[in-house]
Amino acid sequence: MAQTIPARIWTREEIELVIGRVLKIVLIIFFLLITVFPFYWMLNLSVRDITDVLQNPTRLIPTGDQLINFWKPYQAVLVDFRFGTFIINSALVSVITVILTLLLAIPGAYAVTRLQFRGRNRMNQGILLVYMFPAIVIGIPLFVIYSQLGIRGSLPGIVVLYMSGTLPVALYMLRSYFQTIPAELEEAALIDGCGRLETIWRIVLPLSVPAVASVGLYTFMIAWNEFLFAVLFLTDAPQSWTLPLGLAQLNTQEVPRTYLMAGSVIITVPIIILFFGFERFLTKGLTAGAVKG
């Protein structure tokens, strides 16, 4: 007579481990859907003509003909609505804002972290105090000042405005990171004959690659997507419009929704590419500048 194999009894720890793994997989799938699906739906609408969208609003996969001619809405947006010019303007403004913000924030954050001077504590407290004021509060007086100076509608003027919003947070982020760097490393460099600027370049910056990259990415995203100041200061100068203003002109009843989705894709894709590129850069930066024995 065959012997029956007794059923395996699961321990409490094994059951909790299995439940934890299942919940982890379910949560990963859930968050993946709520983050990826909206972007996919935007891509889906951007390649379909407005007639098909109205007749089949829930179509998840475009037709073969729509996929072959996917470039037509993007061509219309880039050429007919001058998105090519807006891309150049946004890229220039964002890159220059990042460069100037880092050039000012790095020595400024180092100064309030390492140097002793009168008013140092008040400066530390005032770094974020400036950022607490809503943009619209300072936007109105700045609008009057820019109008009187005759620089409203210029890209250099908008760069200064963006720096006023990004510089306080950049100072705060870099200061917090500089405080984690051992001061003994900088003291050793000073003893070896390095000046302050050389110490920052050779010691502080290599150890601060993750923080500098994070600040650069944050600053670029703010300048790339900023809309309020662009509306206030660039509306009367179409040749200086940035991408958010260009996208706003597509949000009308006269323009097909597919063009609006195509413009949204044009704005979103560079940020996604930049983010994933910086993610790898940040991972490498965690070990950059390490002291070798």
Q: Topology, please?
A:
Elements: H1 12-46, H2 50-55, H3 64-68, H4 71-80, H5 83-114, H6 120-131, H7 135-149, H8 155-178, H9 183-191, H10 196-207, H11 209-225, H12 228-234, H13 243-248, H14 257-285
Structure, described:
By secondary structure, the chain is mainly α. It folds into two domains: 12-69; 75-285, MetI-like (MetI-like fold). Helix content is 75%, strand content 0%. It has helices at residues 12-46, 50-55, 64-68, 71-80, 83-114, 120-131, 135-149, 155-178, 183-191, 196-207, 209-225, 228-234, 243-248, 257-285. α6 (120-131) packs across α8.
Quick structural overview:
By secondary structure, the chain is mainly α. It folds into two domains: 58 residues; 211 residues, MetI-like (MetI-like fold), CATH 1.10.3720. The protein is 75% helix and 0% strand.
What's the SSE pattern? HHHHHHHHHHHHHH
The number of helical elements comes to 14
DSSP strand tally: 0
- CATH top level label of the largest domain: Mainly Alpha
Shape: flat
CATH topology of the largest domain: MetI-like fold
Helix-and-strand structural type: mainly alpha
What would CATH call the architecture of the largest domain? Answer: Orthogonal Bundle
The biggest beta sheet is recorded as: none
Overall number of structural domains: 2
Provide the residue-averaged pLDDT.
82
Provide the low-confidence segments as ranges.
Answer: 285-293
Strand content of the residues, in percent?
under 5%
CATH level-four homologous superfamily name of the largest domain: MetI-like
- State the helical fraction: over 70%
Radius of gyration, taken over Cα atoms and rounded to an integer in Å: 26 Å
Head-to-tail CA distance between termini: 71 Å
